Amino acid sequence: MDMRLELVPLPSTDVDRSKAFYLDQVGFNLDHDIEPGNGMRVVQLTPPGSACSIVIGVGISDPDAAPVHGLHLVVEDLDAVRRALLGNGIDVSEVSDMGGGVRYAYFNDPDGNSWALQQISR
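The chain above was modelled as a monomer; its predicted structure follows.
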């Protein structure tokens, strides 16, 4: 039986600010920005190369919900991705080498949802 994680809802207090952050600063692709009615807005964005997307919007999750922590973006070249994000104005931590070819760097979105950039060298 297949079980695919394809969509992660994230709380956002300002949908346009969050959309701009993920689209313009992090480099996610915009899949949808729709308003199906009743004041609802659905903004779905996908990291390049990923089968899993995030969704922010109005009527999707409680904007006062606690941030989501520990989301992982697996990258091939952590140093290059970190430089690109820093160049786009994102506060990214220094790289932590965990040993065994595993390296991490971390950043938060404007609502405190936290992300880990993970590189595993094989």
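The helical segments are 15-26, 78-87.
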